[in-house]
Design a protein that fits this description.
Distance between the termini: 47 Å
Helix content: 10-25%
Mean pLDDT: 83
Number of helices: 6
Order of helices and strands: EHHEEHEEEHEHHEEEEEEEEEEEEEEE
Number of strands: 22
Largest sheet: 7 strands, mixed
Strand content: 35-45%
Strand order of the largest sheet: 2-3-1-4-7-9-8
Low-confidence stretches: 174-191
Oligomer: single chain
Shape: globular
Radius of gyration: 20 Å
Length: 314
């Protein structure tokens, strides 16, 4: 078994547009060269450079995980801000990483196989600064490292018929007091571990019965076609028939002292706390569900016939 890692630069097309081809090429080449050395220092073998990314092989899942964490940590501790026209500074660059384990066929210096394809799809799925992996990777890790991986539920990777359980690597400490919504601290633990979810129809009317989750094992999946996925029997589902909603759009689960929503969609999720008009916009990110509010799927709540789920802590 080999562990495959794909690392892709987020927003490389925009980088070339803003910097110009020459400046962007120099910056990306320097970045990829630096990251190659980081992977190699963790016993990774760089199979090839992908222009704005890398394809790396490891003989162990632990080494691959350590290398991926080191790459993300490097970019967090030493942010790289490309210089734009007239000395303007761009936002710090981010990498999205995918990990998979499996058999690999090597031909003429390149590698092929289903595991290679899965790792590439996971990198595509990951958000900036994220590392995604499969159950095969997680199951092969020592116990202490397994705890770094949190399930996002079964997802449909492009080109695959069956759902794949995907895990997000929590590669840095998530301090509760640092998690805020619109500047208001939400560190205080909930007094109740129950959450009600109710879908609203396009005309703003309540649609169907409320789904009520109980901590600590309650879990809900919201999406357009989850009924065709496997491995969802332990979670309640809310099916939303709207083109803006992904097959599996987001998941809600109890995390220690709060309900946490994790977005895994194509178009994003907007969370409105209470009656506030300003939303927390998520794109492959997470936020805590505090009090009561609204979850708008694939578009802002103000969009025409927006698919909206109301949530309420009980």
């Amino acid at each position: 078994m080999t562990t495959i890692v794909f690392a892709d630069l987020v927003g490389s097309t925009g980088l070339y547009e803003s910097l110009g081809d020459a400046a962007a090429s120099r910056f990306v080449t320097q970045l990829i060269t630096t990251l190659s050395k980081t992977f190699e220092s963790h016993r990774g073998r760089v199979v090839k450079l992908l222009g704005d990314g890398l394809f790396v092989l490891f003989s162990s899942e632990a080494d691959a995980l350590a290398a991926c964490v080191a790459v993300q940590q490097l970019l967090q501790d030493h942010p790289l801000h490309p210089s734009g026209p007239a000395g303007t500074t761009q936002a710090a660059v981010q990498m999205q990483l995918g990990m998979e384990s499996g058999d690999v066929v090597e031909i003429d210096g390149d590698c092929f196989g289903d595991a290679v394809n899965s790792a590439a799809r996971l990198a595509d799925l990951a958000g900036g600064g994220q590392i995604l992996a499969t159950a095969l990777v997680r199951n092969a890790l020592p116990g202490v490292l397994k705890n770094l991986l949190h399930s996002l539920g079964p997802l449909f990777l492009r080109g695959k018929t069956d759902a794949t359980e995907v895990f997000r690597v929590q590669w840095h400490d998530e301090v509760e007091s640092d998690v805020t919504i619109m500047g208001a601290s939400i560190a205080a633990p909930l007094r109740s571990g129950r959450l009600s979810l109710r879908l609203y129809s396009a005309d703003g009317q309540v649609h169907g019965h409320a789904v009520v989750l109980e901590s600590p094992h309650g879990r809900a999946h919201i999406g357009r076609a989850m009924q065709s996925a496997e491995g969802m029997d332990t979670a309640q589902s809310i099916v939303v028939s709207d083109a803006r909603v992904s097959r599996l759009h987001c998941s809600i689960a109890w995390r220690g002292t709060h309900w946490v929503l994790g977005d895994v969609s194509s178009f994003g999720t907007w969370v409105y706390v209470g009656e506030q008009s300003k939303a927390v916009a998520l794109r492959r990110g997470e936020c805590q569900l505090v009090g009561a509010g609204y979850i708008s799927l694939g578009c802002e709540r103000t969009a025409d016939a927006a698919p909206v789920v109301h949530y309420q802590s009980l």
